[in-house]
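dude i think i finally got it to work??
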Amino acid sequence: MRARDLRKAIGAFVVVLLAVVVVTAGAGLVTDATGSSGSTQPDAPAYNTSALLPTPVDDTGSVPVPDGAASKTVVIDAAHGNAVGRADLQPLVDALVRGGAEVRFSTVARPRPSSPGRARRG
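look at this
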């Protein structure tokens, strides 16, 4: 291709590209001027987000501890990857200790005892 032909091809490309940009911008201006947004809010009352808010939970409750002379020991399983940490359980632990219970955290996973009717795997 000669340099003159190359300049003609590039010039034609630029003219076509400029025409596309002008037509697209003009179409956008025309649709904005007519006021048709093209989209409307759907009428879906079942999905009203203000009606789906959760009701607040009262977190000022108390933990009643039964009275009695028997020893009270509460063991909390911390060995099986529970999603609740010790800090989350601290209010419960404090209430149980105030009520006279001993609270222990079990961090050792012990196997379940096999029942007599269950076959043992070897």
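The mean pLDDT is 79.
im so relieved honestly
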